[in-house]
Amino acid sequence: MTGDVQIKCRNIWKIFGDDPKGFLARHNGAPEDDAFGDEGYIGAVRDVSFDVRQGEILIIMGLSGSGKSTLIRCITRLNDPTAGEMEYEGRDLLKASEAELIDIRRHKMGMVFQNFGLLPHRDVLSNVAFPLEVQGVARAKRDARAREMIQLVGLEGREAYFPRQLSGGQQQRVGIARSLAVEPDIWFLDEPFSALDPLIRTEMQDEFIRLQQLLKKTIVFITHDFEEATKLADRIGIMKDGRMVQLATPEEIVLNPADEYVAEFARNAPHARIVSARTIMGPVSEGMAAATVPADAKIGAIAAQVIGSDAPTPVVDEAGAPIGAITRETVSDALFRAR
Ligand SMILES: Nc1ncnc2c1ncn2[C@@H]1O[C@H](COP(=O)(O)OP(=O)(O)OP(=O)(O)O)[C@@H](O)[C@H]1O
What we know:
By secondary structure, the protein is of the alpha/beta class. 40% of the residues lie in helices and 22% in strands.
């Protein structure tokens, strides 16, 4: 379950060029798309507004150059937005002093990047303990915490290895352990698995799901891979040319894409794993089967049961009350339409 708003972004612009603020002002704060190229500016993030909710996994997707990394860099204040408003747990991030920002970044935010960012001359233990060292945590305490994190990501026994002695997946686990060492409230991951080969990538996705179930962090995660996004996300935000064109659940995106660009991402999406019973059910009917299915169950998980039943299968809410029914025709139709 996800909760309160943790990060609030309103009308964020990030423009690169000689005088971005002047450019924005000349165009009354909302330049037309053509104006950027005409005047030699790059509109990396254009008028983006959204909330990140406590405990959710929000995935940002989009083609290369659509502004995903720049948006995350704005939220973490590694980049100053050209315009807009941003709050972190009600604190105005744009008015925060440099000292406050460093404090938020060091204590509240964890970051994992595609290239792992490990220090080559330090062993695993010292890499994981590094952010705590920067915070000035005493050696015994930081090493103990680092060992805990190393165990959490399954690298116990490799504390004294150097990054070059580890596989790509193991290196990324070190990166993950290090980002968790500071006990962040919110975790930013910029294409953390894209440098990994497909098998290790799947393993790391499963590892990530396991960690999230354990730690229940708020997560903002960038990926190019729609299948990865549907596997991990509570909500997916899709960016195009600096704009957020749709922000919705994987199911909404697959069933109601905002435009052709979004539809293209969702085209080969695995409906069986995304579409739920609630979405395809019909009304409660006479003569339903005794065995029920939960409304939030994905159709892939219930297909065998529903198709094996001669009578319609009742769909029940959290309290167990029937709110609809599914027949083998509805399920096979939904699965068939999927590909
Ligand atoms: N420091 C910079 N100076 C000028 N232009 C920049 C800068 N950083 C990013 N850009 C431009 O802003 C746009 C968005 O870049 P960004 O890296 O955010 O995209 P992205 O969606 O993360 O791409 P990718 O998936 O390739 O990492 C691109 O056109 C990029 O060239």
